[in-house]
Structures are given as structure tokens and as C-alpha cells.
Amino acid sequence: MRNTLFSLAFAFLTLIGGIQTVAAQSADEATVAQAVENLRKAMFERNVKQFEALISENVSYGHSAGRIENKQEFIKAALANKAVMKSLAFTDQTVKITGNHAVVRNTYNGVSELDGKTNTTKIGVLLVWAKENGTWRLYARQAYRL
Predict the structure, then answer these.
(1) Domain 2-145, what fold?
(2) Distance between CA atoms of residues 66 and 70, nearest Å
(3) Nearest to 91 by CA among 80, 79, 105
(4) Among 31, 64, 74, 79, which residue's CB has the most CB atoms within a 10 Å radius?
């Protein structure tokens, strides 16, 4: 009887622990999804403070044309871009968490205007986020043509 009670208690505690782990993963996924949304807003608004807060010092930022930038190069290029962003949406997004790393895939859908000409951009994006001192920061990004 005593072994049965012990086994039941152990099973119950294991179940509760498993539920807490799932909840923690869901919370991290939501936090990373919010970080991606904050990055989207920073890109749309060209917000230097948000770029600084969201992007790791060690980032490798890859464009669909093959250009690779570090943090300073990315921010400088984002601010120097003369095109006016009309809309920017990230669709078809998935977030997978493994420890202190997150892999995000989405589709970048942007509409911009330059010299009266409208340009539409639709590319696939792979983002890698790392938890640095308790905060999720963009560690790597690679875009690719669809």
C-alpha cells in the first residue's frame, strides 16, 4: 500500500512538473514572438533604440541577395534606406524553442515606395534568437528568395 501511494504521488508530481515545463515553453514562445513583432515595428519605424535593444552585438544579418551585415552595418543600412515603407507584415510564422535558443521562420511581406515607384518584397526568413542575460536577442537572420 505504501509503495502504491508513493508511486501515485511520484506520478502526480511528475505530471505537474511536465505541465509546468510545457507552460514555460509556451511563455518563451510568446516572448520570442513578441520580440519578432518588436523587430518588425523597429524595421517599419526605423527605430534605433529598438534595434539596439533587440539585436545581439554578435548578430549575423543575411539578406536574400547574399549581403551579410553585422549589427552596426545593419542599423546604418536600415536608417540610410531612402525607400518609404508603406506596410510590413510577417506571416506564416513558427517559433521553436530549445533551451536558450529559438528558431523562427516566417515570410516577410513588405511594400515600399521610392521615387514614386511601389516595390513589393516577399521573402522567406530564418531568425535565430538567443537568450542573453535573460533577454531574447536576435543572433542570426538569413533571408532567402521564395
Answers:
(1) Nuclear Transport Factor 2; Chain: A, (3.10.450)
(2) 13
(3) 105
(4) 74
